[in-house]
Amino acid sequence: MSAMYRVFPRKTVVTAVLLLSATTAALSPPGAAVAAERDSVTTHSGAGTEEERRQVEGYWTPARMKLAGALVPEITPVPEDDNTPDDPRPLPAGTLDPGATWTHGGAVDQSVGRLFFTFSDGYDGSCTATVVNSANRSAVMTAAHCLRGVGDPAADGTWHHNLYFVPGYRNGTKPLGGFSVRSAATSSRWNADPGGTTSQDIAVAGYDTGMAVANPSAGGRRIADVTGSQRIAFTKPVEGEFIHTFGYPKGRLNDPGVAYAGSRMIHCAGPARQGPKAPLLWGEACDMSSGASGGPHFARFDPRTGTGTVVGVTTTGADLAGGQTPTLYATRLGDSARHLYDWARTRSL
Predict the structure, then answer these.
(1) Contact in structure between 299 and 265 (CB atoms under 8 Å)
(2) Distance (Å, rounded) from C-alpha 76 to C-alpha 63?
């Protein structure tokens, strides 16, 4: 997760998610490069027909899901399964965790999952996403850069395709099935590139949130009826607030020899702190890297039930936001995220 898990063109290098990529560039003041026009919602249609849904479903085979996000998939062996034993005992409240396989079950094991997609050049990637409370029981929250790159939303290749959410993903399996994405939305701040504005600039300014509306299952059930859903809130961060974070990283920060493989959901927990270089981003000590982008940051999380309130989504690491390494930073949910949520929660299916 470095500088912001930004996405590089696969044709020239390899992809890395915003959260993790990067070169450490000198940053202008937070949000200074972001245009001052009114923030609005930019939407995109996904798998709208039955045939399109079947094609997306068929595309994501177990092997393809396991290799999604591999730097060089053509020569990358299929990752081994993570068979860490489950532990039915609740994690004691307030337990610090810099990164470990989540083995305690609960609602989070069903409502959080791996979000798969294909870049315009044909390479596959993955992020993390969460089913959140909504009137239509179909709203899924993630990071904006997990849905598209910065630029003209009408241009070829701006939006990712084959978007497919697998709640409770584990070792290439779909314990609760898979859900294609009917439509997606990001802030209009991601639409243009005026004066060299980058995805990093926009994320630092607090706009790296995105929403997806999931299609019903093959049996016609809406996703929240299958997975349950998590609360969501648009509140100001509190210094030192204890936050639980979940994701499906494809690597481990500062320890490449012991990498996560995206096989199981990883958990971190600790007090929130403000990013010295990006004060609109807040993070906790955590060694997750790319693939964790879009994962939920929960306030008031109950380890006994696996429920909490989503207050942010993973955006970047210390390379972009500063502070101690490793730290996993979130875009905290504010007015921009609320606009996206209001759009998603009432979409008809």
Answers:
(1) no
(2) 11
CA angle, corner 318, sides to 108 and 13, nearest 5?
A: 90
Taking only Cα atoms into account, the Rg of the chain, rounded to an integer number of angstroms, comes to 18
Q: Cβ(143)–Cβ(209) under 8 Å?
A: yes
Contact yes or no for 242/94 (Cβ under 8 A): yes
Beta-bridged to residue 288, according to DSSP, are: 252
Which residue type does 278 have? A
> What is the reported pLDDT for 195?
63
Q: Which helix (H) or strand (E) holds 100?
A: strand 97-101
79-84 CB contacts, 8 Å cutoff, 24+ apart: 79/261, 79/262, 79/263, 80/261, 80/263, 81/171, 81/172, 81/263, 82/171, 82/261, 82/263, 82/264, 83/171, 84/264
Write down the pTM of the prediction.
0.91
Question: pLDDT digit string (tens) for 239-252?
Answer: 999 999 999 999 88
User: In Å, what is the CA distance from 25 to each residue of 3, 83, 114, 206?
Assistant: 9, 39, 29, 18
Residue 65: which of 52, 53, 81, 51 has the closest Cα? 81
Low-confidence ranges of the chain (pLDDT < 70): 1-37, 193-196, 254-258
Of 74, 55, 190, 54, nearest in space to 123 by CA: 74
CB atoms inside a 10 Å sphere around CB 43? 15
For residue 296, what is the enclosing H or E element? strand 296-302
